[in-house]
Structure formats: C-alpha cells, structure tokens
Amino acid sequence: AATPHSVLPIGLGARDTLRLESKLPLYGNDLDDDHTPLEAGLGWAVKLDKGEFIGAAALREQKAKGLERKLVGFKMDDRAIARHGYEIVDRSRGAGELAAIGVVTSGGPAPFVGGAIGLGYVPAAFADAGTKLTIDCRGKDATATVVSGKFYKRG
User: Fold this and answer.
1) Which of 7, 20, 87, 115 is the most exposed place for a label (fewest CB within 10 A)?
2) Distance CA 29, CA 23 (A)
3) Cβ pair 102, 120 in contact under 8 A
4) What letter would DSSP give residue 154?
C-alpha cells in the first residue's frame, strides 16, 4: 500500500540505528529490572517529589547516596563495532581483579554520526564526557570515547 508513496519497508536494524543515534534506550537491552531509571539517565521521567510509588524510597536513597553506575553513550575511536554483551574493561587493574567494569547494552554503525556508537553501563567514575573506554570486541581491545547527550542532532 505504501509503494505508490515511495515508502519502503524497514527492519529492526534500521529502527535500532535511528533510536541509537538519538540515544533512546530500549527495554530489554538498555533498561531492565537490574538498572534504575536514575542509572539509565531517565531521572527526568521519575518525579520523586510528587507522591509515593513502588520503588520511590529506594530511588530517593540512591539519589542521596549518588550513583555507582551510569548508562553512557560512546563513539568508537576506530573501525570496530561494539555489540550488545561485549565487556567494557579496565586493563590497568591488577592480576587479582576482574578487568570487566561494565557491559555494552546496545551498539552498531551510525551512518549520520560517521562511525560506530553504543550504550553501556559503567562505574560513575568512567561516565564523564571525554573519558576513554576499552571495549573487548571479540577478543581484541578497541577504544571508545564517552559522549554527552545525543549522538545525532538535527541541524
């Protein structure tokens, strides 16, 4: 029905590219029962001062203590593509410590951004814009840089 209007069908890959470039989290990938809205950067959607709701006390406590981890957006520094489930690592840790500090929740190519981008949870100390991350891409380390805000903004 859409063919006369030059509309073509698209799939989930196209949807993921569009939502990722806008830094929109996807439930099941970037949002789940193990991460709070505050950690996911969605504090603006949770009104802690507008009455009680399930989980309000826990969120107020988390906000007061400060976040231990955050969902960040990152742009790959080279041609590698970070995919869902890849570990974000800190290779400077000692031999007795785990190198994994986080996990990529979404990632892929970003045609309008120029390169590959992704989202992942990292300790708050690694969440500032400009911070360099190391992603274990199928056994090879690739570097990425944390970005602030959306990846793509209309001009």
Assistant:
1) 7
2) 13
3) yes
4) -
Contact 86, 135 (CB under 8 A): yes
Backbone dihedral angles phi then psi of residue 129, each to the nearest 5 degrees: -55, 135
CA distance 88 to 26: 19
Which helix (H) or strand (E) element contains residue 118?
A: strand 116-123
The pLDDT tens digits of the residues spanning 32-89 come to 999 999 999 999 999 998 889 999 999 999 999 999 999 999 999 999 999 999 999 9
Query: Does residue 113 contact residue 75 with C-beta atoms inside 8 Å?
Result: yes
For residue 72, which of 44, 99, 98, 104 has the smallest C-alpha distance? Answer: 104
Q: What is the pTM for the complete model shown?
A: 0.88
Count the neighbouring beta carbons within 10 Å of the beta carbon of residue 37: 16
What does the DSSP assignment read for 23-85? T---BTTTB-TTS-TTTTT-GGG--TTS---TTHHHHHHHHHH--SEEEEEEEESSS----TT
Contact yes or no for 126/73 (Cβ under 8 A) = no
